[in-house]
Structure formats: structure tokens, C-alpha cells
């Protein structure tokens, strides 16, 4: 018997496209043809607390699925899913496995729902079900968190444990690393499953990589007919069955799958298409839920460039699950401050081309190490940019992103070259203005920190290297944080600690796009 098992999830994952309203006859047809195709494991839909309606692939009990499975292949394993956090139904409300043709239940859960997932799994196993444990976004777990989860799985001993590329971000090296880590630590009796999303058009190649990987355990690969699924969709069942027939052994019938596409899915696709798009690609590169891209694309009011900027503002804790209210807030903030800054960015790109760039922030070290700064200026002849302040030596550009700081130095600017962000009001006539919203950062604590916004602007202007001075990092004693006491705000020490952590994250993020060097002492560390 082949160690490779395919699990088709068309009626479950595909249901995100049509709200699971396939229609009674279509559900029958899909299950019948999947069975004829010899698909190993067939997922029939969700188990939820929603009232049962025969045209939906949503069921309150496994017994309710029995009528759809009367003329199906006895060799296939039929399963359903409980998604914890998505109107899940408690295992106590579900019939025992012996009363149902559904013999397996998949549990999907977020990290903060792990305790509940394990409780549910134990109850379902007692009821006689094969349990598949499927942690959401496990492809983005740290190695330590993943290994901890694997050890807990070895105690639980479910039928299968999955790694899930929820955001569709995995490349070849990520796949190999994930498989190696899990395979070397997971109990040999537990099957290893893989659920992909096709944001980067890599679901098919990644599945092939998993099949080729030398493992002595059973592996399960999720797929759906025609790739039907939310956003960019999933691995296509017809593609992976044909591949296995060609390279491993001929065990699947592909033609019935194409009949499902022709007769059942094309009408759905014509009304609500799924599959690769630039928006979903952007969502993947930004490591965020595809629904964020879907939501912004549907507005038809912002460009792809802007969508990328808005997605980049999402904080890490908001990226894995879709928060409509949060992305709406980001969107409307953008609309309030939107200006066409393409010409300004192009001028800046031309001004900075081929030049050494020194950015000076108003940290205390910009004063205490001023000799070092002067020495650097004399030696390198850099293009000097300051953020929200004017030192006592000539600078080429002042970047202003803070209205309070602007009013403090407004009288000193005179004929100074200045770029303002669009949130600042009462700017001089013909002022150079760039989009505030486009420059916000994903860390909430320092989302509009002027230094971090400037670095994002310089990335847009194709700058590849900068030197930073006065980026000290925040000390608990606020008096020590700025070169001028007028700049000190009322911030508690805990908030300052969070700011340091967030600044470090954003600096490392920018360091992947441009080379950053520190000229003066700093608390921040670059990886």
C-alpha cells in the first residue's frame, strides 16, 4: 500500500467561495466522483453549530452526512472538520463513529486554542474517530514552539499531525526544514499531513517535494478539485493525482475529477473566481491573511502599490487572522492623508543616487558624540538628513513626520530643504509632502516613528545603504532620551521598553532592504 494519501477538501475548504451552498445534488455528485477517482481521504464539510440545511456542506452531526455517502467507495476514508473558533460544535454533541460513515475528524486550531483542541481530540478519540490535528499557521511557528507541539502530539497520538501553510508563504527550503524537523521528532505511528495555499503558485511543487522526501511514515497531502478555496486557492486534486500516477503508481482516476470541474465548479467559478492574483501574492509576501488583500481589492479605489503599503502596516499579532475593522481603520486613515507623492519620491531618488547618506535622529548621542559625527561628515561628505530637528551644522534635508516637533522648530526652518508627511497640517505653500499612511510601520508602539518612516521612504527612493546617528534607543529615564529636554514626552518605562523592542524589529526589517550601519552607540542590534 502506498505511503502517500491524498485528502480532498473541496466541499470544506472550497466552501469559503460560495458560503458552502453547493446544493444537495452537487454535494452528491462531488462525493460520488471523488470516490470513483479513488481519493484516499474525502472531507465532506464542516461540523458546526449552524442549523442543518440540506444544500450546504455544513453539518451539526456526523450522522447527517450519511445520506450523501450511500453510493461511495468503501476504500475511501470520509472525514469532516471542526474549526475551533469558527462556530465549532462540541464533541459531546456528535454521534459515536460506529453510528456514522464519517470515521475521521480534523481539528484546526490557533496557538491560543491549543488546550481546547487537545480536550476535543481526546473526546473524539474516545468516540472512535481518527483525529487529525491541524494547527493554523504552523508553517510560521518558531522551531521551539513547533517542537513543543510535536512532543505534545507524541503523548496524544492522533491519527495525523499537520503543518499548514496558512498564508501561502513557503518555499522549497521552508518545506524541507519543516519536514525534517517534524519527521525527526514525531512518533513514527503518526501520519504527517501538509495543507498548502497557492498564493505564490508553489502548492504543486511543494507537494512534490514532500512526496520525494525520504520518510518511512504515512504522509497526507491536502488538495481540492480545480484548486477551489479561499483567496489564491489550494493544490489542485487533478494535478497531484496525475503526478502520482506518473511517478509513483497509477492509483487514481483523473477523468471524474475533470467532470467535477466541468459540471459542478465552473458555474461557481464564473460567479466567484478564485486563484492566483497580484493581491494574494502581496498578502503572502507580507505574511498576512489573504482576506486582507481581498477586502482592499474589492474597494477598487486603491492601487496595488497602495495595497502593499497598507498591508505592511498590519502589526504581527493581526496578520494571521482577518480583522475587517482593523484593516478598515488603516484604509480610512490612508484616505484621510492621501497625496500623490510619486514626483517627490522620484526627485528624492535622483538627489540621493550614488551618495553616502547619514541620518541623524535627536537622541542624546547625537550631541555627546558630535565629534564622531563631524569626523564622519568631513571624511565621507555625506548627504545629511535629520528627523524632526535642526543641529548646529548644515544639513541637506529635514524630514518632518511629527506635528508637535514641527511647531517646535518651525521658526528655525526658513529656507531649509524640508519634506513633510501628509498628516502635518499648516505646511508652507509648495511644501514637499509624502504620504503619511504609506510610511507607517507594522509595530503599533512605533507605527509613526519619524525615523522608521524615513527609512521606509528611502527604501521607496531605492537607497541601498545608510548610516545612522542619534538612534540611541529609549532609556527608562526619559531625560536621557533626547538632545533637548523640549522633546521629552510623558511616557512610562514599560511603554519605552515596548518601543525599544518594536524599533529593533522594524530596523531589522529595513536592514533586509538596505544596509544599515550605526555611527553612534545604540541599544538596537541588527541580525
Number of strands: 16
Main β-sheet, spatial strand arrangement: 1-2-4-5-6-7-8-9
Helix content: 25-40%
CATH architecture of the largest domain: Alpha-Beta Barrel
CATH topology of the largest domain: TIM Barrel
CATH superfamily of the largest domain: Aldolase class I
Give the domain tally: 3
Question: Are there runs of 5+ residues with pLDDT below 50, and where?
Answer: none
Q: From the helix content, strand content and strand pairing, which structural class follows?
A: alpha/beta
Main CATH class of the largest domain: Alpha Beta
What's the mean pLDDT score? 91
Number of helices: 20
Radius of gyration: 28 Å
Q: Regarding quaternary structure, how should these chains be classified?
A: single chain
Distance between the termini: 47 Å
Q: Which percent band covers the strand fraction?
A: 5-15%
Shape: elongated
Could you give a short account of the major beta sheet?
8 strands, parallel, barrel
Describe the structure.
The chain is α/β, with parallel strands linked by helices and 527 residues long. The protein folds into three domains: 4-271, Aldolase class I (TIM Barrel, Alpha-Beta Barrel); 278-336; 342-518, no CATH class. Helices cover 40% and strands 15% of the residues. The chain is built from 20 helices and 16 strands. Strands 1-2-4-5-6-7-8-9 form an eight-stranded parallel β-barrel, surrounded by five helices. Strands 14-13-12-11-10-15-16 form a seven-stranded parallel sheet, with helices on both faces. Helix 3 runs antiparallel to helix 9, helix 10 packs parallel to helix 12 and helix 19 (450-460) runs parallel beside helix 20. The longest helix is centred in the last third of the chain and has 19 residues, at 493-511. The radius of gyration is 28 Å and the shape is elongated. The protein starts with a strand and ends in a 9-residue tail after the last strand. The model has no long low-confidence stretch (mean pLDDT 91).
Amino acid at each position: 500500500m502506498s505511503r502517500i494519501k491524498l485528502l480532498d477538501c473541496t466541499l470544506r475548504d472550497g466552501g469559503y467561495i460560495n458560503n458552502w451552498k453547493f446544493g444537495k445534488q452537487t454535494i452528491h455528485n462531488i462525493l460520488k466522483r471523488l470516490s470513483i477517482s479513488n481519493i484516499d481521504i474525502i472531507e465532506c464539510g464542516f461540523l458546526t453549530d449552524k442549523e442543518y440545511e440540506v444544500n450546504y456542506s455544513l453539518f451539526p452531526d456526523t450522522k447527517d452526512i450519511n445520506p450523501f455517502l450511500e453510493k461511495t467507495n468503501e476504500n475511501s476514508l470520509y472525514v469532516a472538520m471542526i474549526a475551533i473558533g469558527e462556530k465549532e460544535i462540541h464533541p459531546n454533541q456528535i454521534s459515536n463513529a460506529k453510528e456514522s460513515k464519517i470515521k475521521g475528524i480534523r481539528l484546526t486550531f490557533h496557538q491560543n486554542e491549543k488546550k481546547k483542541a487537545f480536550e476535543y481530540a481526546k473526546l473524539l478519540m474516545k468516540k472512535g474517530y481518527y483525529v487529525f490535528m491541524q494547527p493554523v499557521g504552523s508553517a510560521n511557528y518558531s522551531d521551539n514552539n513547533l517542537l513543543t507541539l510535536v512532543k505534545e502530539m507524541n503523548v496524544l497520538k492522533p491519527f495525523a499531525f499537520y503543518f499548514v501553510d496558512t498564508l501561502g508563504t513557503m518555499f522549497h527550503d521552508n518545506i524541507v526544514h519543516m519536514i525534517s524537523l517534524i519527521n525527526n521528532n514525531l512518533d513514527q505511528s503518526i501520519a504527517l499531513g501538509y495543507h498548502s495555499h497557492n498564493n505564490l503558485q508553489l502548492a504543486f511543487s511543494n507537494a512534490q517535494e514532500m512526496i520525494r522526501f525520504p520518510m518511512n511514515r504515512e504522509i497526507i497531502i491536502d488538495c481540492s478539485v480545480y484548486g477551489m478555496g479561499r483567496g489564491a486557492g489550494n493544490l489542485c486534486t487533478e494535478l497531484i493525482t496525475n503526478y502520482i500516477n506518473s511517478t509513483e503508481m497509477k492509483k487514481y482516476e483523473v477523468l471524474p475529477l475533470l467532470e467535477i470541474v466541468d459540471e459542478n465548479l465552473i458555474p461557481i467559478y464564473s460567479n466567484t473566481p478564485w486563484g492566483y492574483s497580484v493581491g494574494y501574492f502581496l498578502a503572502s509576501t507580507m505574511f498576512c491573511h489573504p482576506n486582507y488583500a481581498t477586502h482592499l481589492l474589492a474597494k477598487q479605489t486603491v492601487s496595488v502599490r497602495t495595497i502593499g503599503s497598507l498591508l505592511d502596516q498590519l502589526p504581527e499579532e493581526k496578520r494571521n487572522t482577518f480583522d475587517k475593522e482593523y484593516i478598515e481603520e488603516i484604509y480610512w486613515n490612508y484616505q484621510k492623508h492621501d497625496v500623490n507623492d510619486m514626483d517627490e519620491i522620484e526627485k528624492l531618488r535622483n538627489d540621493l543616487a550614488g551618495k553616502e547618506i547619514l541620518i541623524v535622529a535627536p537622541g542624546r548621542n547625537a550631541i555627546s558624540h558630535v565629534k564622531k559625527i563631524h569626523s564622519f561628515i568631513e571624511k565621507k561628505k555625506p548627504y545629511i538628513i535629520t528627523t524632526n530637528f535642526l543641529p548646529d551644522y548644515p544639513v541637506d534635508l529635514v524630514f518632518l513626520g511629527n506635528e508637535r516637533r514641527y511647531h517646535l522648530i518651525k521658526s528655525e526652518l526658513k529656507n531649509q530643504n524640508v519634506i513633510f508627511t501628509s498628516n502635518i497640517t499648516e505646511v508652507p505653500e509648495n511644501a514637499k509632502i509624502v504620504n503619511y499612511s504609506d510610511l507607517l510601520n507594522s509595530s503599533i508602539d512605533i507605527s509613526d516613528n519619524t525615523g522608521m518612516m524615513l527609512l521606509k521612504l528611502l527604501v521607496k527612493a531605492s537607497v541601498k545603504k545608510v548610516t545612522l546617528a542619534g538612534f540611541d534607543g529609549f532609556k527608562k529615564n526619559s531625560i536621557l532620551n533626547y538632545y533637548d529636554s523640549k522633546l521629552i514626552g510623558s511616557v512610562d518605562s514599560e511603554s519605552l521598553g515596548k518601543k525599544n523592542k518594536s524599533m529593533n524589529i522594524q530596523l531589522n526589517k529595513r536592514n533586509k532592504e538596505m544596509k544599515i550601519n550605526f555611527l553612534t552607540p545604540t541599544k538596537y542590534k541588527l541580525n
